[in-house]
Design brief:
The chain has a single domain, classed as Orthogonal Bundle (Tetracycline Repressor, domain 2), CATH 1.10.357.10. It contains nine helices and no strands. The longest helix has 27 residues.
């Protein structure tokens, strides 16, 4: 028998993948349990708030993991422009690896369910805010005058480019947006 935490984590990981690929409404709890190889009663045992709680936790987990990946890129690149280029390549690579099935780990759920659930909306907002704050912090360290504004623009532009890349099945939009953002950043720090 799997340890209690292992079953919970498997359900969460499965839900996260399914929400990201097919959306909140198209993902059924039975599908999560079947694909997560979890017993039927385990979902409400681990997630007493049901599908909404599962979505909130999946969004938070995804946002935290992507933030950590971008944070690592920020720490290991010479400047914010290079970090954003590397982030776009990371996202593009993940998109290609999934055969253009996955996109942003927040946007699919945000577009579908945020209007109907304040808890889901808040989780999505927190995730996006954490990404903006991370980039703004680096921009501030680079000496950019209005780092929050540029960071908000960067996250929004990359988010849109990720959507275009997904539907076009081509990561060129991500690369173009990253190149333009890099130029904008370099011009503000020059």
């Amino acid at each position: 028998m799997a340890p209690r935490g292992a079953t919970r984590q498997r359900i969460l990981e499965t839900a996260r993948t399914l929400f990201r690929r097919q959306g909140y409404h198209a993902t059924g709890l039975n599908q999560v349990l079947d694909e997560g190889a979890a017993p039927k009663g385990s979902l409400y045992f681990h997630f007493p708030g049901g599908k909404e709680q599962l979505a909130v936790e999946a969004v938070r987990l995804s946002a935290t993991e992507l933030r950590a990946a971008v944070d690592l890129l920020i720490e290991t690149t010479p400047n914010t422009a290079a970090a954003l280029r590397a982030s776009a390549e990371l996202l593009g690579g993940l998109l290609e690896q999934s055969d253009f099935q996955d996109g942003c780990p927040i946007s699919t759920v945000a577009l579908e369910a945020a209007a109907g659930s304040d808890a889901i909306r808040q989780a999505c907002a927190e995730g996006y805010r954490s990404w903006v704050e991370l980039i703004a912090g680096r921009l501030r360290a680079d000496g950019v005058a209005e780092p929050e504004e540029l960071a908000t623009f960067a996250v929004s532009a990359i988010e849109g480019a990720l959507l275009l890349a997904k539907v076009q099945r081509d990561i060129t939009p991500l690369r173009r947006v990253a190149a333009r953002l890099a130029t904008m950043i370099e011009e503000t720090t020059a």
